[in-house]
Specification:
- Keywords: ATP-binding, Nucleotide-binding, Transport.
- It comes from Streptomyces fildesensis.
- This is Oligopeptide/dipeptide ABC transporter ATP-binding protein.
- Belongs to the ABC transporter superfamily.
- With about 450 residues, the chain is of the alpha/beta class.
- The protein has two domains: about 15-280, P-loop containing nucleotide triphosphate hydrolases (Rossmann fold); about 325-420, no CATH class.
- The protein has 15 helices and 15 strands.
- The protein has helices at about 35-45, 75-80, 105-115, 120-125, 130-140, 150-160, 170, 180-195, 210-230, 240-245, 265-270, 275-280, 325-340, 345-350, 375-395, and strands spanning about 20-30, 50-60, 65-70, 90-95, 100, 115-120, 200-205, 230-235, 250-255, 255-260, 365-370, 405-410, 415-420, 425-430, 435.
- The strands form three sheets. It has an eight-stranded mixed β-sheet, sandwiched between helices. The chain has a four-stranded antiparallel β-sheet with strand order 2-1-4-5, sandwiched between helices. Strands 11-13-12 form a three-stranded antiparallel β-sheet.
- Strand 4 and strand 5 (about 100) form a beta hairpin.
- Helix 5 (about 130-140) packs across helix 6 (about 150-160) and helix 5 (about 130-140) packs parallel to helix 8.
- The longest helix is centred in the middle third of the chain and has 18 residues, at about 210-230.
- The radius of gyration is 26 Å and the shape is elongated.
- The two termini are about 40 Å apart.
- The protein binds adenosine-5'-triphosphate.
- The site of adenosine-5'-triphosphate (ATP) has 13 residues, from strand 2 and helix 2.
- Adenosine-5'-triphosphate (ATP) binds near residues 76 and 303.
């Protein structure tokens, strides 16, 4: 079991009163679809992968901030951008008040000492041909931090001791291949702290380790944080570890933060339907207590074509009329239904429709459906009305139909019109320290 330092008992300054170390404002990292500069320029307008899309976050000294979300939500890109490993395409990053967004390699170099990354895979992070003395002490050489071999050895020895690779003499001449996964990650942490950094971005630092050593590595990181006055950004898809490890947590979905606040508060009373679904999916340690879980339907969408309005709406069980319904949601609804039906029945229903490709375009708030051969727009409308009626009687309610304003025939096609959408803004909820971007709550801009 992890033991976090008790901030009140130890007289540690509350987070709110601490100095701001890093501040991100409207941060964007959009990747162009093509690898050249023209592609990147064009990519900003259309077809770009919006890996990070308008993030505002403040990181205070001594804080452990968790960036949590499914694969593809942009956590890694955000962490890397913070350290200058990816370039921001918009917004700003301030470190100790200084705007470092446009820092090139030369200006970034001295900062690299202060801002370190710990990667997921300790096996890949260490050069197999380099002994531990050379690997762990590498940053000392890069940043010219020692003037003699004796000083070098003393610092490496101290770092190894701090991470529990003791006695250090036993490890200095070993190679990564001689170490277990947990020992390798300890060596990686020794290398990360040796240049006396201020901030560590740890990207899934325990996910490739044996279950038995995961808690020990997190505990070690907490001990290092306390002893060396570190600040952490912890990137993970594992909410259970984030719950113990993080002071604050930012839940990311498709490049945006959908919920942010003190970890204890977010876990005790999650607000965003996405956070609720993620929390519900945490495995129950005692299988006899297994409850029926409401798992997220569908997959995280393509970040190059994010859904209209709230990106989560196509998967959201409680989405409202104005959450961003669009033509491709109709296609999604039909295809999900046909997958569940016996093939013959699905085939019959599918035959009512002509080409569905026109419904794939993103951001189209009215769907014009071409009837299949031998069918009319009225046949399609009758079918859709039947689906709507069935849905209104079913539990849980299918939220898609809340977004439909009208269905009518026009020019031989069946037209389905959706409510106008608004992007929900991250907004502080009254009487809480939690911010949420969801139209279920007032102040989201909906
Ligand atoms: N260098 C890149 N070029 C183009 N697209 C990228 C690049 N790096 C990341 N992406 C895309 O940006 C989006 C966010 O990726 P990112 O790795 O930051 O997400 P993540 O939440 O950390 O996921 P994972 O847990 O799988 O690492 C994804 O759609 C990804 O494909």
């Amino acid at each position: 079991m992890l033991t976090k330092p008790d901030t009140e008992a130890s007289g540690v300054v509350a987070l709110d009163d601490r100095e701001t170390l890093v501040e991100m404002q409207d941060l964007e990292v959009h990747f162009g679809m093509r690898g050249n500069v023209f592609g990147r320029l064009a990519g900003k307008a259309a077809g770009a992968v919006k890996a990070v899309d308008g993030v505002n976050l403040k990181l205070r000294k001594g804080e452990v901030l968790g960036l949590v979300g499914e694969s593809g939500s942009g956590k890694t890109t955000l962490g890397r951008t913070l350290l200058g490993m990816n370039r921001a395409t918009g917004g700003t990053i301030r470190y100790r008040g200084e705007d470092i967004t446009e820092f090139g390699e030369r200006k970034m170099r001295p900062l690299r000492r202060k801002l370190q990354m710990v990667f997921q895979d300790p096996h890949a992070s260490l050069n197999p041909a380099m002994d531990i003395r050379t690997a762990v002490g590498h940053p000392l050489r890069i940043h010219n931090l020692v003037s003699s071999d004796a000083e070098y050895d003393a610092k490496v020895t101290d770092a190894l001791e701090r991470v529990g690779l003791t006695p250090p003499e036993r490890y200095l001449t070993k190679f990564p291949g001689d170490l277990s996964g947990g020992q390798k990650q300890r060596a990686v942490l020794a290398r990360a702290i040796i240049a006396e950094p201020e901030l560590l971005v740890a990207d899934e630092p325990i996910s490739m380790l044996d279950m038995s050593v995961r808690a020990k590595i997190l505990q070690l990181m907490l001990d290092l944080k306390r002893d060396l006055d570190l600040t952490y950004v912890y990137v993970t898809h594992d909410l259970a570890s984030a719950k113990f490890f993080c002071d604050t947590i930012a839940i990311m979905y498709l490049g945006r933060i959908v919920e942010y606040g003190p970890t204890a508060e977010v876990f005790a009373d999650p607000k965003h339907p996405y956070t609720k679904a993620l929390l519900a999916a945490i495995p129950e340690p005692d299988p006899t207590l297994a409850v029926e879980r409401e798992l997220l339907r569908g997959e995280i969408p393509d970040a190059a074509k994010p859904p209209l309005g709230c990106s989560f709406h196509p998967r959201c069980p409680v989405a409202l009329a104005g959450c961003g319904w669009e033509a491709r949601d109709l296609r999604g609804l039909l295809e999900r239904r046909w997958l569940e039906l016996p093939p013959a029945e699905a085939g019959k229903e599918r035959a009512l429709f002509g080409d569905l490709d026109a419904l794939s375009e993103s951001g189209v708030t009215s769907a014009a459906v071409t009837p299949g051969r031998g069918h009319s727009a009225e046949d399609v409308l009758e079918y859709l009305r039947r689906l709507r009626e069935e849905a209104s009687a079913a539990e849980p309610r299918e939220p898609f139909w809340r977004g439909v304003i009208t269905m009518h025939a026009e020019g031989g096609r069946a037209v389905v019109e959706f409510s106008p959408a608004q992007d929900p803004r991250l907004n502080l909820l009254p009487e809480t320290d939690v911010q949420v971007a969801c139209h279920l709550y007032p102040g989201s801009g909906g």
